[in-house]
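Appendix B, Record 12. Input sequence as logged:
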Amino acid sequence: MTGRFVSVNGQKLAVWERAGLGAPTLFVHATGFHARCWDQVIARVPPARRLYTVDMRGHGLSSKPDPPYSWRRFGEDVAALSLALNLRGAIGVGHSMGGHSLVLAASLAPDAFSRLLLLDPVIMPEEYYTGAARVPHFARKRRNRWSSTEEMFENFSTRPPFKDWEPAVLRDYCEHGLVDDGDDFVLACPPEVEGSIYENSSHPDASLYGVMRQLTAEVTVVRSNKSRMGLEGPKDMTSSPTAPDLASRFRRGRDVVVNFSHFIPMESPGVVAGWLGEAVA
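Logged structural output:
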């Protein structure tokens, strides 16, 4: 994978590309993650395929504007990036917030994507979009400083939800999830950024119910069978935030329920690569 920066909407996004043939695939990560969390999925995709991954604004090596963070802005960034990369008929693979972003991007740049694979996307039931959270999200209290990536890996490897991840994915998450600030290492997605994103997940501007029916792309919604619906707030981050009827809201939607937690690509990158192979076929 070769990296570069692409300027969109006044921000610099870090983008990695693997050269190849055919319609490309764009991978979009979840809140608090980064582009290289897809490395283990990509390693299982035939090398002839052209692939892109991106650090969203506020994450990884990309620009980090001050909060607050609007969910709509992420989708607008993906749409602008797809145009900058000259994507046409691409496959979009998005996890969690990344799935939400791809749906909006596909509505703003309809020629860019022919298929979407949405892995437990944060697109909640329509009635949930009532306003931003009134209290700070607990992500703001995440530990921000680490002496090394190895310390972070050892600390996380025995804790949920990370202990259920494939170890190579956790290593990628730690290796590329920290940046050197001169003294120690700090999170590549600052806690105040991550918290702001979660706090605005239920803002009316984050609702996509006005655009989903317009999409002509084929959409596969993969949902964890551990639903978050009905819980008092997003306390359990391993459960699914996805509206159970989401696939039916698209013209060409398909619903797949799986026995994984919300962290589907972290727990089984091989299965995700298999779904992508089906989409290509």
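The chain has eight helices and eleven strands.
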